[in-house]
Amino acid sequence: MERTLIKNVGTLVTGDIGSPLAEADAILIEGSHISYVGMTGNLESSEYERVIDAAGMTLLPGLIDSHIHPAIGEYTPMQNMIGYIGSYLHGGTTTMISNGEVLLPGQPRGVDGLKALAIFAAQSYQNYRPSGVKVRGGTLLLREGFSEEDFAELSRLGVRRGKLLYEIKPEIGARYASWARNHDLKLLMHCGGTSVPGGLSTTPEQVLKIRPHVLAHLNGGPTAMPPEAINTLIDETRGMIELVLCGNPRAAIAIIAKVLREDQLERVILGTDTPTGSGIIPLGMWQLINLLTGFSDLKPEVAICLATGNTARFYGLGSGFIREGSAADLILADAPAGSAAPDTLGAIAAGDIPAIALVMIDGEIVVEGSRNSSPPKRRLKIER
C-alpha cells in the first residue's frame, strides 16, 4: 500500500464545522485514505513512497458541489460541451451531486421512463468517474403516479435521491416524502420560481406540507421566493438549506446572515446549480464561497466546511473531511500570485479566488497545477 506524506502544511482546514481548523502541519495517506493528521515530529516512520512538501500552503478537503445537472458522462447538451467536469476538477471540486438529469434531450415524462433514467444515471456514474471526479448521479425526477414499490425498487438499484421539480399536489408530495424516508432516499424540493417548462413555483405552504430533506437552492434557482417565505421555511422546517451560485445573491446573503445569527450553520450546504442556462462555471464553488464571506460575517474556513464536511455528513459520503479514516480527496491551495493576502484564507477574506496547486482523489494526484486558477505564491515539491 502506497504511503504519501504531506508535510510543511501552513494551515489545515478540517471540513468539520464544529472545529474548522486543526493544529497540524502534516497528514499521512495510506492507499486511498488518511491515516494520520498531526505534527510531523510525532510520526513514527520516515519511509514513504511519496512526499509532498506543501511549502506552507493550505490543505483542505476537496470541494463537494451539492447541486449539478449532469446528462451523460462528461457531456452537457445545453452548452454542447464535452469534458466540462475536468474543468471543475481544476477548480478543486472532487465530488458532484446530481439534482436530476433534467438536461437530457427527450427527457422521459412517464413513471417508467423517469425510473429508467434515474437508474441509468446512478449506475453509470458508479462505474465511471468523469475526469476522475466522483459524480453521484441518478436523482429521480418526481411526477404524480409513483408507488411505494417504485421507491423500494429504485433504492435497491442504487438511486439515493428524489427531487420534486414539477407541479405536484402537496398531499402526493408528502406521501413521496414518507416513502423516501422508508427507503433511504433523500427528498429534495425545488424552492423558488419556475425554472423549467411545467416546473414548480414553490410556496411555503407546499414545502411545509411536504417537508423535504433538502430545501434545494433556497436562494432561488434562479428566482428566489419572497424573503418572508424563505424565513418561514428556515424557522419552521429542519431541512438542509442549500445555497447556490446561480441563484439570487441578495437572498443568499440574507439567508447566511440569518443562519449565522441563529447558529444554524450545520444546516447549510453549497452548490453551483450548473450546467444550466447560467452556464458552466468551473470556479463556481469558490465564487460562492467568496460571495458569502465577502458580504457577511462568515469566516473563510467555516465557508469551506459548508462546501465540504456539511454536504458529506448529510449525504453519507466518505470524503469531505481531513481526519483519520476519511478518503484522501484533498486540495493544496495558496494565495494567488500578486494577491495582497498571505495565504488561502486571507485571499478569500480579501475577495480573491485561491490558487489551486494540487488536487488529490482517493490519494492519487489528479491535478498538479490548475489550468483554471491563478498560479500560487508558493511552490510545492513532490518527491517520488
Structural write-up:
With about 375 residues, this protein is of the alpha/beta class. It folds into two domains: about 5-60 and about 320-384, Urease, subunit C, domain 1, CATH 2.30.40; about 65-280, Metal-dependent hydrolases (TIM Barrel), CATH 3.20.20.140. The chain has helices at about 85-90, 110-125, 150-155, 170-180, 205-210, 225-235, 250-260, 285-295, 300-305, 310-315, 345-350; strands spanning about 5, 10-15, 20, 25-30, 35-40, 50-55, 60, 65-70, 75, 80, 95-100, 135, 140, 160-165, 185-190, 215, 240-245, 270, 330-335, 355-360, 365-370, 380-384. The strands form five sheets. A six-stranded mixed beta sheet has the order 3-2-7-19-20-21. It has a six-stranded parallel beta sheet with strand order 13-14-15-16-17-18, with helices on both faces. Strands 5-4-1-6-22 form a five-stranded mixed beta sheet, with no helix packed on it. Helix 3 links the parallel strand 13 and strand 14. Helix 4 (about 170-180) runs parallel beside helix 5 (about 205-210) and helix 6 (about 225-235) packs parallel to helix 7. The model has no long low-confidence stretch (mean pLDDT about 95).
